[in-house]
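User: Hi! I'm working on a homework problem where we have to compare a predicted structure to a textbook description. Could you give me the structure for the chain below?
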Amino acid sequence: MLKASAEQLAKALSNLMQENNKKLVIIHSDLSKLGLYKPKNQNILEDIKEILSQKIIAVPAYTINSFTKTKVYRPESDRSEVGALGELAKRMGWSRTNNPMHSFYLDDDTAYKDHTRFKDKIKTSSFGTKSFLAKVEQDAVILQIGCFHNTFVHRAENIFKVDYRYTKVFKGKWISLCDQGEVENEMIVRDLSIKGINEIDRKNAAVEFFNSKYSSEVKINDCTIRAFDADNYLKFTIKNLERNKYYLTSI
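Assistant: Happy to help. Predicted structure tokens:
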């Protein structure tokens, strides 16, 4: 198996971020693509936090399947369904946002207290105007380590109001170690009555964006690491949706 060092990671991230003035970094990752990683600190997330010390770091910790099945969100214990970095953030005691389906871990939630506050009744949104993604879209740079995933694709669909998705509200409760309350989350879901949608094709749209002037990338061994601003991605994607409303599908 190929090996990667903290020094290689530091060089790669520094090259990608050296001229970026966004304050928040959202990391999507498939760490298996990086190979056998030897950390400088206790783990790779601590290394990233040290390398990007001037940034606030956000890590997806989505629990879509568990919440739709159990109708319960346990922010302190629910396991992230989207990768290892979420579990590392949990062990490191990072704050978790209050969305029961699309939560994020934050190493500093000072500017985002409205999204990490838990109260008796919470109304959240995954991709709408009151969502965490909407809150940070002008502040965020997306960092992809070994993957092409980017949750802002659904933010773009929400803004454009694609006809193959509709708004649905999911209700349940949140339970912490010492308190609990009600929570409901608004998100867009696929309209199954519209046939022929192949969402795998969104990868082609992603590649088109990665080949644009808005995205930069470096490699560590066979692992591609990419960075781009969320607002540039949204402008690019919505412009293409205006030309072709099925730009993100292969209908």
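For your comparison, note the following. Residues 3-243 form one domain. The CA atoms of residues 16 and 227 lie 6 Å apart. Good luck with the assignment!
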